[in-house]
């Protein structure tokens, strides 16, 4: 594991974007695993800038996102599909048809999970997976559990996650209680994993996840077993 501590969010965002852009330059038709939440916003802003400057070309890239709320469709501005379109995809030259987010409105979510895993497999797996981390140690929406869950699956969100994500909604009551998330299999099989975390409030969970025991009670701790993991942390 490479654990990089940086001065501030700007530096974190620049470094993370550089790692992702280097991946695209090295393999223009790569498969990027992408994440939502507030942490990647600066990274995406840097990627957009690099694309506008002509330094990186996303036209051959395919993306697979980690997760989606159950019941929110593309028109809902809190859906992760909407987030990705507005914060990244519409501002870079990726082909929108090659961007994938699990469908949280599918009639059969178990089947949607199977289809999503089959898609990732058919693409040949993920070259680089970007992750944030929740205050309870979740990655994607893999919440603390008794076991690490492998496949893409539906989850009940933890109270702490609902509270943490309420800042994006009008009220806590509006936060969906369920989500569909890529499981640990596709994440751990990604060739490279890049996790970004910022803020004093993430310090404790980052320490637990990367310097504590590996346990499904701290889902991100499984990443300690990944052969090519980079963590970038900024206290500010
Ligand atoms: C959400 C997402 C995660 C994200 C986490 C942290 O729950 N499903 O992928 O990592 O929030 O969000 P933030 O970066 O806003 O702290």
What does this molecule look like?
Strand 9, helix 7 (203-211) and strand 10 (229-234) form a beta-alpha-beta unit. The chain has helices spanning 9-26, 41-52, 80-87, 109-122, 159-165, 184-189, 203-211, and strands spanning 2-6, 31-34, 62-65, 67-69, 99-100, 128-131, 153-156, 178-181, 192-198, 229-234. By secondary structure, the chain is of the alpha/beta class. It contains seven helices and ten strands. Strands 1-10-9-6-2-3-5 form a seven-stranded parallel sheet. Strands 4-8-7 form a three-stranded antiparallel sheet. The protein has one domain (2-234): Rossmann fold. It starts with a strand and ends with a strand. The model has no long low-confidence stretch (mean pLDDT 97). The longest helix has 18 residues, at 9-26. The protein is 31% helix and 18% strand. The protein binds 2-amino-2-deoxy-6-O-phosphono-alpha-D-glucopyranose. Residues 35-39, 66-67, 132-134, 140-141, 161, 165 line the site of 2-amino-2-deoxy-6-O-phosphono-alpha-D-glucopyranose (GLP). 2-amino-2-deoxy-6-O-phosphono-alpha-D-glucopyranose is lined by residues 35-39, 66-67, 132-134, 140-141, 161, 165.
CATH class: Alpha Beta
Poorly predicted runs of 5 or more residues: none
The hetero molecules present are: 2-amino-2-deoxy-6-O-phosphono-alpha-D-glucopyranose
Number of domains: 1
Helicity range of the residues?
25-40%
| Morphology call | globular
- Name the strands of the widest sheet in spatial order: 1-10-9-6-2-3-5
Q: Report the radius of gyration as a whole number of Å.
A: 16 Å
The SS-based structural class is alpha/beta
Q: In the CATH hierarchy, what is the architecture at level 2?
A: 3-Layer(aba) Sandwich
Q: What's the N-to-C terminus distance?
A: 22 Å
Beta-strand content = 15-25%
Number of extended strands: 10
**What about the largest sheet?**
7 strands, parallel
| H/E element order | EHEHEEHEHEEHEHEHE
The CATH topology label is Rossmann fold
Mean pLDDT: 97
């Amino acid at each position: 594991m490479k654990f990089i501590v940086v001065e501030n969010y700007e530096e974190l965002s620049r470094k993370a974007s550089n790692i992702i852009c280097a991946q695209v330059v090295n393999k223009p038709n790569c498969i990027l695993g992408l994440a939502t939440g507030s942490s990647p916003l600066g990274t995406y802003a840097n990627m957009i800038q690099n694309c506008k400057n002509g330094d990186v070309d996303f036209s051959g890239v395919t993306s697979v996102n980690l997760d989606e709320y159950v019941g929110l469709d593309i028109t809902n501005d809190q859906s992760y599909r909407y987030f990705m379109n507005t914060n990244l995809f519409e501002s870079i030259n990726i082909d929108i048809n090659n961007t994938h987010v699990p469908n949280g409105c599918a009639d059969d979510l178990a089947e949607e999970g199977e289809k999503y895993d089959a898609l990732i497999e058919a693409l040949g797996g993920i070259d680089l997976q970007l992750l944030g981390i929740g205050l309870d140690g979740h990655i994607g929406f893999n919440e603390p559990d008794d076991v690490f869950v492998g496949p893409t699956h539906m989850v009940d969100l933890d109270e702490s996650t609902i509270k943490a994500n309420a800042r994006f909604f009008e009220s806590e009551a509006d936060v969906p209680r369920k989500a569909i998330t890529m499981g640990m299999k596709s994440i751990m099989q990604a060739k490279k994993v890049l996790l970004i975390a910022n803020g004093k409030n993430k310090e404790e969970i980052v320490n637990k996840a990367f310097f504590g025991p590996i346990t499904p009670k701290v889902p991100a701790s499984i990443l300690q077993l990944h052969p090519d993991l980079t963590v970038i942390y900024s206290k500010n």
